[in-house]
Design brief:
By secondary structure, the protein is of the alpha/beta class. The chain contains five helices and five strands; from the N terminus they run E-H-E-H-E-H-E-H-E-H. It has a single domain, classed as Rossmann fold (3-Layer(aba) Sandwich), CATH 3.40.50. 45% of the residues lie in helices and 19% in strands. Strands 2-1-3-4-5 form a five-stranded parallel β-sheet, sandwiched between helices. Strand 3, helix 3 and strand 4 form a beta-alpha-beta unit. Helix 2 runs parallel beside helix 3. The longest helix is centred in the last third of the chain and has 14 residues.
């Protein structure tokens, strides 16, 4: 990144404060600007405000699910073109592949399993933004 380039902004929407903190820190160390919020409603508002380069969106959240949040993002003029990657903490590989196809049809860029090795997740995020 040259001095004139600003870091790409990632919006992290996840209801787990510990995960938000850990992943935000790792993303910042990797050179990204990060905004983090705890629910879908706040995610939609923040996305409209900051127009991030990428949204990392937890699937399982109280009140508004990740799927409902994605649908609202994709129907809003200011956010419809922002790439969204779903994050999930559970599911077997076959189920993940089936869900990935469904969520791709809804407009998600990808569907990743939260993993103990967050470096793998960071690597994938870098590939989406290169």
């Amino acid at each position: 990144m040259t001095k004139k380039e600003s870091p790409k902004t990632i919006l992290l929407v996840d209801d787990d404060p510990g995960f938000r903190e850990i992943l935000s820190t790792k993303l910042k160390v990797a050179g990204f600007a990060v905004e983090a919020v705890a629910n879908g409603e706040a995610g939609i508002e923040k996305a409209q405000e900051i127009k991030p380069s990428l949204i990392l969106l937890d699937m399982q959240m109280p009140k508004m699910s990740g799927a409902d949040t994605l649908l609202k993002l994709k129907e809003t003029k200011e956010t419809k073109d922002i790439n969204v990657v779903f994050l999930t903490s559970y599911g077997d590989e076959k189920m993940l592949e089936q869900e990935k196809m469904l969520y791709n049809q809804m407009g998600a860029l990808d569907y990743l399993k939260k993993t103990d090795d967050l470096d793998v997740l960071i690597s994938k995020v870098k590939s989406y933004l290169s």
